Amino acid sequence: MALSYYVRFVFLLSALMIVLYILSILSTPISFGKFGFYRGDNVREWIERPVQYAGANRCVDCHYQEYSRWNVSEHFGISCETCHGALNEHVKNGSSIPVPSDELCRLCHSPSLSRPRGFPQINPNEHWSNITIKGVYTLRDIGRRFNYTCLTCHDPMDVRLTAPLIPHPLEGRSDCRSCHGLEGTEPFPNDHALRPNDVCFACHKVSKIPQVPHTLEGMVKCLLCHRRSSIVPFPEDHIGRTADTCLQCHKVRGLE
Amino acid sequence: LSKDKVSRRRFVKFIAVGALVGAAGISGVSVFIKRRQSWAGQKSILGSYDWDEHYWGFIVDTKLCIGCGRCVVACKVENNVPMEPEFNRTWVERYVVDRKGEIYVDSPNAGMNGFEDVTEKYGDIDIRQSFFVPKLCNQCTNPPCVQVCPVGATYVTKDGVVLIDRERCIGCRYCIQACPYGARYLLPEEHVADKCTWCYHRITKGLKPACVEVCPVGARIFGDLRNPDGRFREYLRTERLSVLKPDLGTKPKVYYTGLIEGVR
Questions:
Q1: Does A52 touch chain B (CB under 8 A)?
Q2: Residue B159: which of B40, B39, B58, B41 has the closest Cα?
């Protein structure tokens, strides 16, 4: 009789264990425990999540002009998406992207003791305040007056000042507007209309005129040697000039 | 003789239970075999990515960090992290050391809006030194968070990244408590734990993590410890790398350069 109870107990217990085992199989995800103590399918789920940041390599496919500017600039190496934000949507459907503002420049370039030594930091209150116009205004004041932003002078794709150089000697002239206006001789761009005469030289530097690297030894007819097709040819815009004007601008080295 | 006789009731019971158990057993075994078969090619579920070929690592050069917080923003956008400052997969801390060696740490909005000049907040302190330290999940080789998870919802992949299974996570927060680096947080909507995955969906496609992609000064360097190349290799070879809280034995795979003793 006691044996019968024992047999029945063992029988029921094993039945229970089998049922529980089956239940545990049914309730455990298929992929659980295949790689480790976790659901293997979850790895695939993470891999399949969508990408938002496309990477700068994608940008160059269309924006090769911007790319070539950026390529030689101080900002080279900084990803497009650092300033322009996530661009995968834009790559897919050409949706518009936000244009960076001054605020963004300041995130990196505002002065801070915590930033590494040598990192370019600009204090907007001191920037250009050491250059005075007519002894009264600083360039900073003028910038404030006309709501200059960082981007007024700096191209973020090439942050070096890239304003065109003045191609002629000034010879004492300081009033650019007496010759240059919105129309006429070498007109300046529309967005320059409000800028006063005084700030021209902040961005536009006078180009250096190459010196004559050799002694003249009595040679005065430059055009005998220098032609469009000769060694050291002169630039396109010099065509038509005569030999007697050369030395007015191009000084012989060491004579000055 | 009557003792050996089996009553009708008992016979029927025996047959019924036996049939039930037998059927259950057979169906269980068949289900088991079926599942086994559907998972015959285990690694193939990962697509073309072979996780046996990689073992990822991360280097943070704190000497380069300018605290612009682009990494924090990029991380939030890339991974759908809530924009509120208390939810972060990565964040930037500012350390300030005064003349006595006292250390102050702050991270306004996790650094995602950059930092004011240090004198704005610590004007009354005689500052000896200040620098930024970007933080993220250290993807420990011995992760305490994985050890404590009661439901197997967090785990280490073969390529060394600690991931969280949002389907299995029950939101008990045990892992958040266990992480000595404060790298985990609870997603407010889904109510599951979340943390940095080194952008697992990006690195398995050959891309860099979003924070590494956008860092303008290259303070974050990502690479493969199994096959290091480029800047990552250069850093491994030439820089003196350290990890956060090495005494805990967690063996992080985020390596730092330029730390001082008080950075934890």
A1: yes
A2: B58
For residue A90, the chain B residues in CB contact (below 8 A) are none
Q: How far apart are CA A167 and CA A237, in angstroms?
A: 11
For residue A77, which residues of chain B lie inside 8 Å, CB to CB?
A: 218
Contact B97, B111 (CB under 8 A): no
Of the candidates A47, A51, A78, which has its C-beta nearest B47's C-beta?
A47
Q: Which residues 171-200 of A are in CB contact (within 8 Å) with B?
A: none
Its ipTM equals 0.84
Please give the DSSP secondary-structure letter assigned to residue B12.
Answer: H
Comparing alpha-carbon positions, the chain A residue that sits nearest to B258 is: A116
Lateral strand order in the sheet of B56-61? B220-224, B56-61, B254-257
Q: Which residues of B touch A79 (CB under 8 A)?
A: 213-214, 216
Best residue in A115, A117, A119, A125 to probe B by mutation, most B CBs within 10 Å? A115
pLDDT in tens, chain B (264 residues): 555 677 888 888 888 988 998 888 888 778 777 766 666 556 677 888 999 999 999 999 999 999 999 999 999 999 999 999 999 999 999 999 999 999 999 999 999 999 988 888 888 899 999 999 999 999 999 999 999 999 999 999 999 999 999 999 999 999 999 999 999 999 999 999 999 999 999 999 999 999 999 999 999 999 999 999 999 999 999 999 999 999 999 999 999 999 998 898
The whole-angstrom separation of Cα A72 and Cα B248 is 46
Specify the long-range contacts of residues A166-171, CB closer than 8 Å, at least 24 apart: A166/A204, A166/A205, A166/A206, A166/A207, A167/A207, A167/A237, A169/A206, A169/A209, A169/A249, A170/A206
Q: Which region, left, alpha or beta, applies to residue A186 given φ > 0 means left and ψ of -120 to 50 means alpha?
A: left
Residue B159 has phi, psi (to 5 degrees) of -95, 15
Q: Rg of chain B's alpha carbons, rounded to an integer?
A: 26
Q: How far is CA B11 from CA A75, B16, B17, B74, in A?
A: 89, 9, 10, 72
Residues of A in contact with B158 (CB under 8 A): 35
For residue B247, the distance in angstroms to the closest alpha carbon of chain A comes to 27
Q: How many CB pairs under 8 A join A and B?
A: 161
Q: Report which secondary-structure segment, H or E, holds A84.
A: helix A80-84
Which residue in A9, A30, A47 has the most chain B C-beta atoms within 10 A of its own C-beta, making it the best mutation to test that interface? A47
Quick check: helix, strand or coil at residue A138? strand
How deeply is B65 buried, as exposed, middle or buried, from its count of CB atoms within 10 A (0-12, 13-18, 19+)?
buried
